[in-house]
Design a protein that fits this description.
Its cofactor is Mn(2+); Mg(2+). This is Nudix hydrolase domain-containing protein. By secondary structure, this protein is of the alpha+beta class. The chain has a single domain, classed as Nucleoside Triphosphate Pyrophosphohydrolase. Helix content is 30%, strand content 25%. It has helices at residues 8-19, 90-97, 101-119, 138-148, 154-161, 216-224, 232-241, 247-252, and strands at residues 3-6, 28-38, 49-56, 67-68, 71-73, 85-86, 124-125, 164-166, 170-177, 186-194, 208-214, 259-260, 263-267, 270-274. Strands 2, 3, 4, 5, 9, 10, 11 and 12 form an eight-stranded mixed sheet that branches. A three-stranded antiparallel sheet has the order 1-14-13, covered by helices on one side. Helix 2 (90-97) packs across helix 3 (101-119) and helix 6 (216-224) crosses helix 7.
Length: 281
């Protein structure tokens, strides 16, 4: 069995869950994006890729201290039809992720919004064939902070700047559902995207106290050494990305998206979180 021991409060909740004495909280729709760039060349090719990661602050209610990709919950306004759109439509994304078109629209918009909020990178452009070249400056920062504060919706932000959301720059990667034992749960679709030319990430603060570009294999090694903490879905995505030679190959790959949800089990009197290798039935 591949799993993680559950002790303390989580262990007690796991027992109660198996006994049917507690009801799982609903999982909220969420989106996260593994933002990629070419890694610095090694002594011999291939160079591989680097992925942008944030360390969540120790005060966060969910996944405190974990290294994660930019992402978060879907804002109800993310499904606004006023968002100018380029690339595969909500119906196609819904087919890929097993969601209705309204939910799929919200997921894609949340992916773009959260990436901008948490990295300063914007997957949008003046027209369907271009991408914003620079998102630095006080005016961009004011808009980013307004998005975080929910004082500004994605549709309002893009519309005011005359920008088109570039859904074609995103690729679907995986789908994970927070285990039922957790008090906060998310139904998260994972995307990958290449770092747009001319743009750069920046330390935007807020929910993260550290940001870094890491080779997937480096992040995995640090996790094995206990230097960083990775949630099971993040660890799985990094393991998969470590096998790729370059960003273009990552984006060109065909993915069959199936939902995965860790479960709980009791083994020899101890509770365990079981990490699934196969899709949720």
């Amino acid at each position: 069995m591949k799993g993680i021991p559950l002790d303390g409060e989580l262990g007690e909740r796991a027992r109660a869950l198996l006994a049917g004495t507690i009801t799982p909280v609903p999982a909220r729709d969420a989106a996260t994006v593994a933002l990629l760039r070419p890694a610095a060349a090694r002594p011999s090719p291939p160079a591989g890729v680097e992925v942008y990661m944030l360390r969540r602050t120790a005060t966060m209610a969910f996944a405190a201290g974990a290294y994660v990709f930019p992402g978060g919950s879907v804002d109800p306004r993310d499904a606004d039809h006023g968002v100018a759109w380029a690339g595969p439509g909500p119906e196609e994304w819904g087919r890929i992720f097993g969601a209705d078109p309204v939910t799929a629209r919200g997921l894609v918009c949340a992916a773009v919004r959260e990436t901008f909020e948490e990295s300063g990178v914007l997957l949008a452009g003046p027209d369907p064939g271009t991408v914003v070249a620079d998102t630095t400056g006080d005016d961009w920062e004011a808009d980013r902070e307004a998005l975080i504060a929910r004082e500004l919706s994605l549709a309002e932000f893009l519309g005011r700047r005359g920008l088109v959301l570039r859904a074609d720059l995103l690729r679907p990667w995986s789908h994970w559902i927070t285990p039922e034992v957790e008090r906060r749960r998310f139904d998260t679709r994972f995307f990958v995207a290449a770092m747009p030319p001319g743009q750069r990430t920046r330390d935007v603060g807020g929910e993260a106290d550290e940001v870094a570009w890491l080779r997937p294999e480096h992040a995995l090694r640090r996790a094995r050494d206990g230097a960083i903490f990775l949630l099971p879905p993040t660890l799985r995505v990094l393991t998969e990305l470590a096998a790729y030679q370059d960003v273009a190959t990552v984006l060109a790959g065909e993915r069959r998206i199936t939902a995965r949800r860790p479960g709980v089990a009791e083994v020899d009197g101890r509770m365990w979180l079981v990490i699934p290798e196969d899709p949720v039935p």
